[in-house]
């Protein structure tokens, strides 16, 4: 899963980046509204953490421009402690949720998980595909209750597919959502990691759709 983190406070941004990466997300950053708008409009993200008090272009304007352009990516806005008017304006502009500063990282992570699940029509924090269960809260995967050891990239790849059961996902889409902008993206390496995942998962769980990509096929 790939996130856009928009915060002009460098200390807070660094703390959030560290926490988000530790939770298994690929993270892109922006410290002003102009860069944030450009990234959100031209890159693929699963969710955005957006501070409203930004230089150059305020966060509310960034959000409004995204929504006017038809972008539906989930957005969690950050507001000041006494900024109830900002909360209302942000939600009216198209925000999916808000968090008031100061906040605990655990709450931010929980709200992001919920936003990403809801964007795919999923309710439970535990995603299941037959004997495979992925707990989005603890980033743990089990098969028939037994823990499965995955690398961080293998986990992100499996999580992306399990958020989209039955949907065909191209290698390009996977590379766009698994790596941050400054990473060395090579869609061919996705095939390597798919192969590694298949060796760890039950047979036929990940299907190759020739010429299109991959699909997670939950057992009946």
Automatic annotation (TrEMBL):
<keyword id="KW-0238">DNA-binding</keyword>
<feature type="modified residue" description="4-aspartylphosphate">
    <location>
        <position position="51"/>
    </location>
</feature>
<keyword id="KW-0597">Phosphoprotein</keyword>
<feature type="domain" description="Response regulatory">
    <location>
        <begin position="2"/>
        <end position="116"/>
    </location>
</feature>
<dbReference type="GO" id="GO:0000156">
    <property type="term" value="F:phosphorelay response regulator activity"/>
</dbReference>
<dbReference type="InterPro" id="IPR011006">
    <property type="entry name" value="CheY-like_superfamily"/>
</dbReference>
<feature type="domain" description="OmpR/PhoB-type">
    <location>
        <begin position="124"/>
        <end position="218"/>
    </location>
</feature>
<dbReference type="InterPro" id="IPR001867">
    <property type="entry name" value="OmpR/PhoB-type_DNA-bd"/>
</dbReference>
<dbReference type="InterPro" id="IPR001789">
    <property type="entry name" value="Sig_transdc_resp-reg_receiver"/>
</dbReference>
<keyword id="KW-0902">Two-component regulatory system</keyword>
<dbReference type="GO" id="GO:0005829">
    <property type="term" value="C:cytosol"/>
</dbReference>
<protein>
    <submittedName>
        <fullName>Response regulator transcription factor</fullName>
    </submittedName>
</protein>
<dbReference type="Pfam" id="PF00486">
    <property type="entry name" value="Trans_reg_C"/>
</dbReference>
<dbReference type="GO" id="GO:0000976">
    <property type="term" value="F:transcription cis-regulatory region binding"/>
</dbReference>
<dbReference type="Pfam" id="PF00072">
    <property type="entry name" value="Response_reg"/>
</dbReference>
<dbReference type="InterPro" id="IPR039420">
    <property type="entry name" value="WalR-like"/>
</dbReference>
<keyword id="KW-0804">Transcription</keyword>
<dbReference type="GO" id="GO:0006355">
    <property type="term" value="P:regulation of DNA-templated transcription"/>
</dbReference>
<feature type="DNA-binding region" description="OmpR/PhoB-type">
    <location>
        <begin position="124"/>
        <end position="218"/>
    </location>
</feature>
<dbReference type="GO" id="GO:0032993">
    <property type="term" value="C:protein-DNA complex"/>
</dbReference>
<dbReference type="InterPro" id="IPR036388">
    <property type="entry name" value="WH-like_DNA-bd_sf"/>
</dbReference>
<keyword id="KW-0805">Transcription regulation</keyword>
């Amino acid at each position: 899963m790939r996130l856009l983190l928009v915060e002009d406070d460098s200390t807070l941004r660094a703390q959030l980046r560290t926490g988000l990466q530790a939770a298994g997300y690929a993270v892109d950053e922006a410290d002003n509204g102009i860069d944030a708008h450009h990234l959100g409009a031209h890159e693929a993200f699963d969710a955005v953490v957006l501070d409203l008090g930004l230089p150059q272009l305020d966060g509310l304007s960034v959000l409004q421009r995204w929504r006017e352009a038809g972008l539906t990516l989930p957005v969690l806005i950050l507001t000041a402690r006494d900024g109830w008017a900002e909360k209302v304006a942000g939600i009216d502009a198209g925000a999916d949720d808000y968090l008031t500063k100061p906040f605990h990282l655990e709450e931010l992570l929980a709200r992001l998980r919920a936003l990403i699940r809801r964007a795919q029509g999923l309710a439970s924090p535990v995603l299941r595909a037959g004997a495979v269960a992925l707990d989005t809260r603890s980033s743990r995967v089990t098969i028939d209750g037994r823990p499965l050891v995955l690398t961080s990239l293998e986990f992100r790849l499996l999580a992306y597919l399990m958020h989209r059961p039955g949907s065909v996902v191209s290698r390009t889409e996977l590379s766009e959502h698994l790596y941050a902008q400054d990473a060395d993206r090579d869609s061919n390496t996705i095939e390597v990691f798919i192969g590694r995942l298949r060796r760890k998962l039950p047979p036929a769980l990940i299907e190759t759709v020739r010429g299109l990509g991959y699909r997670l096929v939950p057992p009946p």
